[in-house]
Amino acid sequence: MKSLYNKSLRAYVHQQADENGKIITYRLNPGATVAIPDNIADIWLKSNEIMEVGKEDKAKDEEIARLKAENEKLKAEAEKPEEEEKKPAKAKRTRKAKKDEE
């Protein structure tokens, strides 16, 4: 399914039979945006009066999702050193301290 926008002043109409033989009518009124099956959309897109919408939005959404994932990864990496710094360093026992304990 493709989302199409009708820029013209006329309606686009197409009829198609489904698997059961039932006739389905697709109508794209002037100034309207409707989801149309790919095979019909490809025919209508040959006209300069019809344009596909949402294609750019999908690319933007994918880019946003990729950047968010990258951001989360970088935040996780940035927090790791801070957690390691917060851990107290183990005190090393010197030879002198060992002798004093005995």
Could you characterize what this model shows?
There is one protein chain. It is rod-shaped, with a radius of gyration of 32 Å. The chain has two domains: 52 residues, no CATH class; 31 residues. A three-stranded antiparallel sheet has the order 4-1-5. 6% of the residues are buried. The termini are far apart. The chain has three helices and five strands, in the order E-E-E-E-H-E-H-H. The model has no long low-confidence stretch (mean pLDDT 84). Helix content is 45%, strand content 25%. The chain has 102 residues and is α+β, with helices and mostly antiparallel strands.
Compact summary:
By secondary structure, the chain is of the alpha+beta class. The protein has helices spanning 38-44, 55-86, 95-101; strands at 2-6, 12-17, 23-28, 33-36, 50-53.
